[in-house]
Design goal:
The complex is a heterodimer of chains A (495) and B (244). Chain A is of the alpha+beta class and 495 residues long. Chain A folds into 2 domains: 2-43 and 306-395 and 453-494, no CATH class; 55-299 and 411-428, no CATH class. Chain A has helices at 2-12, 14-53, 105-112, 181-193, 207-212, 249-255, 275-285, 294-300, 304-341, 343-351, 356-392, 432-440, 457-484, 487-494; strands at 59-64, 88-96, 100-101, 103-104, 117-137, 148-162, 177-179, 202-206, 220-223, 226-236, 245-248, 261-262, 264-269, 290-293, 301-302, 395-400, 445-450. In chain A, β9 and β10 form a beta hairpin. The longest helix of chain A is centred in the first third of the chain and has 40 residues, at 14-53. By secondary structure, chain B is α/β, with parallel strands linked by helices. Chain B has helices spanning 44-51, 74-84, 100-106, 115-128, 144-156, 174-191, 202-205, 235-238, and strands at 2-13, 16-28, 33-37, 59-64, 67-68, 85-88, 162-166, 194-198, 210-215, 218-223. In chain B, α6 links the parallel β7 (162-166) and β8. In chain B, α3 crosses α4. Classes of the chains: A alpha+beta (495), B alpha/beta (244). The A-B interface holds A 1, 4-5, 8-9, 11-12, 344-345, 347-356, 358, 486-488, 491-492, 494-495 and B 45, 49, 52, 54-55, 74-75, 78-79, 81-83, 85-87, 89-91, 93, 95-98, 102, 105-107, 109-111, 115, 154, 166.
Chain lengths: 495, 244
């Protein structure tokens, strides 16, 4: 009787029931779409952060270089200060990544002993500059104004010194490998376990850099005058901020003359709740260091991803809430109106002995069914909305500013360093000063991101819960109205 | 048995009050057939609602089988209604989305009778009112007379002690009116229940041994001599008119 009565009553009021269901469907659909889009934005943000930090890394520690502290331009590879005009020269410089200065490796050990720290590892992120050219007169000198070099060419690449003892942390893990997992694993094993010196000269090369420079497994790369064998290529996601060449940390330290030093420490907290406390402790331990958490870094991510995040967080959420509220109100009003139209019916049922709770149950049941139908329609609309977001949404960009990880700072190529490279007054092409300025200018890292709107069972559960809640709310209001109905009034109204 | 003692019902109306019934006293024996007559708006329906426990008196009492209906809690009152009273309304008040059989069955729902016997009783009740073949029809597919028969079957199906009918022939043509009144009279005689019928129709009113005439909220009893003695209880003995 209950379900027959419920079903037929809904069919009788098909138009009103449809309006309620469609209203709830719109609200639920919007909630699903916004939630899915928000999830997509968060995933994209996480991708950016992971690419900068490394998966599982909660905190990074760096030390910003003060002007001049990064050292000047030092040559390797047999620089002569007395070269004859017309003599070719080739120079390499390997220095700490722009804006960073080194930290003693012992600090890594100190950090790893802090309470709340699950792991810490150091890495040496380096910039390599290779210059080749011919002396036209004088000698390259940091102070010589008479030096004249022309023409010469400059090539730069980045180098990551990875601690093979901690494969789970560090710049290599942050590369969000899309391929090359096996070769990375093999590289870690060989570097870690082999005592052969040749294994310490194995390098991994980022596939995009390898493509540009036509490198493949077995190729040779030269870093600061030292030849290394490419063990394999690693591919990374579009969002990854990676180095061009990876070396064992010890080799990188040797080549950069930074023995026992790192310039980035990657720290994993024991739990999310420890991050803040660990950050404070590290800051206390290394007062001059920049201690950055994922949250700090997130605030530095700008670009359209940031706009999308704030759009989803503010406009999207509020729009969904408003539409849902409107749907709830609509459902409640229509249900109450329906009860008002059925006064005689409910009055009669009460007269023949139906308890109020049974009548309330009937009204509630009808509303919940409307809610479930609305929820089912809403899931359809939400899936469609999420599909459209994935298909139609423009590519977003995430820009990491000039502070924090992956950034550079002025001064890395500042004055006063040892053997600085004097500005040439040459007339040849490729005036290098501009090139260097560009290379070491404060860096902003822009990453293209495709926004997706991933759906999950949780989102569907939320949708159904909201729809049923809307139906219940409407049913409770309608039922309350029906329960208050006095049969005498109801029957008298007919009279 | 009903016993009405100094029963009054006053309704608020705007800033004032309307006295629908004023100090009515009446004793109604089990199995009695009483018709209630009077001008529109003078308190007939109010009396019926009070007899059926659908309204509560402002003062005085309606005692049914020892229960003071006005003093019972709502849930108890609902149970008394479900078990003892059958209602027949002028507008039939059938559920439009339920078939004739389902409408009848609805009266058995509160009695928690299992589905199968419930359906069997509904069909039997429809057969009693001559509508066995219309059990599967919806109210909109039935004539006014048929709808009222369904309403009578719904009132009868639970074998109530009392049937309360509010102008059951008010919306029917003359022929159908006669059929419905005859049906109710037959069922009253066969089943021995108390029957109270509010009517404007004097011909209908005179078919009962006694008629309560309500004017401006006061009650006067008239004994219909032609019918007196034809019913089961002795109307003379039962009547306790307070006003005439």
């Amino acid at each position: 009787m209950y379900f027959r009565y419920l079903g037929r009553e809904l069919r009788r009021r098909a138009r009103s029931a449809s309006v309620v269901a469609i209203g709830l469907a719109l609200g639920v659909g919007l909630v699903i779409t916004v939630t899915a889009a928000a999830s997509g934005v968060k995933t994209a943000q996480a991708q950016v952060l992971h690419s900068l930090y490394g998966v599982g890394t909660d905190i990074s520690v760096t030390k910003t270089a003060t002007p001049g502290s990064a050292g000047g331009f030092r040559f390797r590879g047999g620089a002569s200060t007395h070269s004859a005009p017309g003599q070719p020269f080739s120079r390499d410089r390997l220095s700490s990544a722009a804006g960073l200065t080194t930290i003693a490796e012992t600090d890594v050990a100190s950090i790893s002993k802090l309470k709340g720290v699950a792991g810490a590892t150091g890495a040496l992120n380096l910039s390599s500059i290779h210059i080749t050219g011919t002396f036209s007169g004088g000698a390259p000198s940091s102070s010589s104004s008479s030096a004249s070099t022309t023409p010469f060419s400059v090539s730069t690449f980045t180098v990551g010194g990875v601690n093979a003892d901690d494969p789970g942390l560090g710049p290599l893990s942050s590369s969000s490998l899309t391929s090359g997992t096996k070769v990375v694993s093999s590289w870690f094993k060989r570097v870690q376990q082999s005592s052969s010196s040749s294994d310490q000269l194995l390098a991994l090369v980022n596939s995009s850099y390898a493509k540009q420079n036509k490198l493949k497994s077995g190729s040779t790369v030269t870093v600061a005058g030292t030849k290394l064998t490419v063990l394999g290529l690693v591919s990374t996601s579009a969002t990854a901020s990676v180095e061009d060449i990876y070396l064992p940390l010890s080799e990188a330290q040797k080549l950069a003359s930074d023995a026992g030093k790192v310039n980035t420490i990657y720290v994993t907290a024991a739990s999310a709740s420890d991050i803040s406390a660990v950050q404070t402790k590290i800051q206390h331990l290394l007062p001059k260091a920049t201690v950055t958490t994922a949250a700090d870094l997130a605030s530095q991510v700008t670009g359209s991803i940031s706009t999308a995040a704030s759009l989803v967080d503010s406009l999207g959420v509020w729009l969904a809430v408003l539409v849902l509220l409107a749907a709830f109100v609509l459902a409640a009003l229509l249900t109450t109106a329906s009860v008002n139209r059925r006064v005689r019916e409910f009055g009669t049922l009460k007269a023949i002995g139906w308890h109020s709770r049974r009548i309330v149950g009937q009204v509630l049941g009808e509303s919940v069914v409307q809610g479930v139908i609305g929820g089912a329609l809403g899931i359809g609309l939400g899936v469609l909305g999420a599909f459209l977001v994935t298909k139609v949404a423009p590519t977003l960009t995430a820009t990491v500013g000039a502070t924090g990880l992956g950034s550079g700072a002025a001064g890395a190529f500042g004055p006063g360093g040892r053997g600085g490279f004097g500005g040439g007054s040459g007339t040849g092409t490729g005036a290098s000063h501009q090139s260097f300025t560009h290379t070491f200018a404060p860096a902003t890292h822009t990453i293209p991101l495709h926004l997706t709107a991933p759906l999950s069972l949780g989102i569907f559960g939320l949708a159904v819960a909201l729809a049923v809640a809307g139906g219940l709310l409407a049913g409770i209001l309608g039922g309350w109205r029906a329960a208050r109905l006095q049969p005498a009034e109801a029957l008298r109204r007919v009279e | 048995m009903y016993e009405l003692k100094k029963l009054s019902r006053v309704y608020p109306k705007g800033r004032g009050k309307v006295t629908a019934l004023k100090d009515i006293s009446l004793v109604l024996q089990d199995g009695e057939f009483l018709t209630v007559q009077g001008p529109t708006g003078h308190g007939k329906t109010t009396l019926l609602l009070l007899l059926g426990g659908l309204d509560r008196p402002t003062s005085g009492s309606v005692v049914f089988d020892g229960h003071d209906l006005g003093a019972l809690a709502e849930s108890q009152l609902v149970d008394v209604r479900a078990q003892n009273f059958g209602f027949v309304f002028q507008n039939y008040n059938l559920m439009p989305t339920l078939t004739a059989a389902e409408n009848v069955e609805a009266a058995l729902v509160p009695l928690k009778i299992p589905t199968a016997p419930r359906r069997a009783r509904s069909v039997a009740a429809l057969a009693d009112v001559g509508l066995a073949d219309r059990a599967g029809h919806f109210p909109a597919e039935l004539s006014g007379g048929e709808q009222q028969r369904v309403a009578i079957a719904r009132a009868l199906v639970k074998a109530p002690k009392v049937i309360l009918a509010d102008e059951p022939t008010g919306n029917l043509d003359e022929v159908t009116r006669g059929e419905i009144v005859a049906l109710m009279e037959r069922l009253w005689k066969e089943r021995g229940m108390t029957l109270v019928v509010v009517t404007h129709d004097t011909q209908v009113a005179k078919r009962a041994p006694r008629t309560a005439i309500i004017t401006n909220g006061t009650l006067a009893l008239r004994v219909n001599r032609r019918k007196a003695g034809s019913g089961r209880p002795d109307p003379e003995a039962a009547a306790e008119p307070v006003e005439s």
